[in-house]
Amino acid sequence: MRAEPSSAARAGETARERTSAGVSFAASLAFETIHYRVGSTEILKGITLAAQPGEILCLLGPSGSGKTTMLKIAAGIERQTAGRLLLNGREISGPGTFITPEKRGVGLMFQDFALFPHMTILDNVRFGLKQLGSGAAKREAMAALARVNLQEAAQDYPHMLSGGEQQRIALARALTPRPSVLLMDEPFSGLDSRLKDVVRTDTLQILREAHATAIVVTHDAEEAMRLADRIALIKDGELVQVGTAAELYGRPVNLFAAGFFSELNIVEGVVRAGRVVTALGPVADSPSSDGSEVTVALRLTGLRLNEREAGVSGRIVARRFLGGVDLMTVAVEGLDMPLRSRMRAGLVPENQRDVVVSIDPQDVIVFEKTPADR
Ligand SMILES: Nc1ncnc2c1ncn2[C@@H]1O[C@H](COP(=O)(O)OP(=O)(O)OP(=O)(O)O)[C@@H](O)[C@H]1O
């Protein structure tokens, strides 16, 4: 084995290789106990998270949770105040290392696409290929345009293309230098909802074909579920949970995580003889000891009206027709707040007020109460 060069030299070297390599190769990118402080405000509070080679990792969280700051740190636009950033296991930013953005081999794509309006599409795409000779740059750029199926637009200007086409050009531009990791900040937020679906599906396919590692920021849980191999849920600068969509949806670690993926009714419960008992009756099994207080999150789709004979009595106090479903608000004795139910439209007749309320066990999530909850 030959002697290892310094990590800074290695990272710079790999970045150079990558900008001109014929095939992109996916890298891992790891945040290691990353803190970011501005004045006395701690914006990131020790985040440890890694995107694996070829993985699409979504950073999901509410506005202001620190997602964009994480991308900026990954790109080298901001520098963390503590912690390390590793590309393929090699430190690219840490207490004694800082590889500049252009040497990292990390691509960035922000929400407004930022195509240069005065340049043709071809020139926009080959902008990031200055290191290559002009012939090679043109070939690479045309191949990238072919990949997003827009080679015919090469001589057009950005304003001549639709929002979705511009987004695909921006993606082609971000991918042509063959970054080992592509960072995307709300890449679909500028598109209307119908176009968003199509462009998102196309993007996913292009990322897969390019075998790119991608870290995608979104505040939309459904978008994260559609795109991601894994989702990292962020709140107030902390990592709440990381896992597949099914893991976060099915086994959320707390009410915040549960509420991010589903609309919920929240009711109080107490454990009696191994069952969680609420005003709606027993709703789940529990290993906790008798008398333990729990919080029960109940997805709206799991509150069923008139489906079974067994259940508690309820009264519909409001209903809304939402196309395929009816959203109904139901008052139940013993509960201060009415509950909401989403059921296939028309299952409960329009004029019916009094209903039998039952629970679908797969839509029940039970959380032990922490001392802070009591
Ligand atoms: N340089 C800075 N100086 C002061 N505050 C900052 C700075 N950078 C970020 N912040 C603050 O840090 C918090 C996190 O910002 P960030 O943009 O990372 O959040 P976000 O999760 O991407 O939110 P959004 O979805 O709204 O873009 C915000 O409250 C923001 O105002």
Task: Note the topology.
Elements: H1 7-20, E1 29-38, E2 41-51, E3 56-60, H2 67-75, E4 82-87, E5 90-94, E6 97-98, E7 106-109, H3 121-126, H4 134-147, H5 163-175, E8 181-185, H6 193-209, E9 213-218, H7 221-227, E10 230-235, E11 238-243, H8 245-250, H9 255-261, E12 264-272, E13 275-278, E14 281-285, E15 293-299, E16 303-305, E17 312-321, E18 325-332, E19 339-344, E20 354-359, E21 364-368
Helix pairs in contact: 4-5, 5-6
Adenosine-5'-triphosphate (ATP) binds next to helix 2.
Q: Explain this structure to me?
A:
Residues 29-261 form the ABC transporter domain. Keywords: ATP-binding, Cell membrane, Ion transport, Iron, Iron transport, Membrane, Nucleotide-binding, Transport. This is ABC transporter ATP-binding protein. It comes from Jiella mangrovi. Belongs to the ABC transporter superfamily. This protein has 374 residues and is an alpha+beta fold. It folds into two domains: 7-255, P-loop containing nucleotide triphosphate hydrolases (Rossmann fold, 3-Layer(aba) Sandwich), CATH 3.40.50.300; 262-373, no CATH class. The chain has helices at residues 7-20, 67-75, 121-126, 134-147, 163-175, 193-209, 221-227, 245-250, 255-261; strands spanning 29-38, 41-51, 56-60, 82-87, 90-94, 97-98, 106-109, 181-185, 213-218, 230-235, 238-243, 264-272, 275-278, 281-285, 293-299, 303-305, 312-321, 325-332, 339-344, 354-359, 364-368. A six-stranded mixed β-sheet has the order 7-8-9-3-10-11, with helices on both faces. Strands 2-1-4-5-6 form a five-stranded antiparallel β-sheet. Strand 8, helix 6 (193-209) and strand 9 (213-218) form a beta-alpha-beta unit. Helix 4 (134-147) packs across helix 5 (163-175) and helix 5 (163-175) packs parallel to helix 6. Mean pLDDT is 86; it is low at 1-23. The structure holds adenosine-5'-triphosphate.
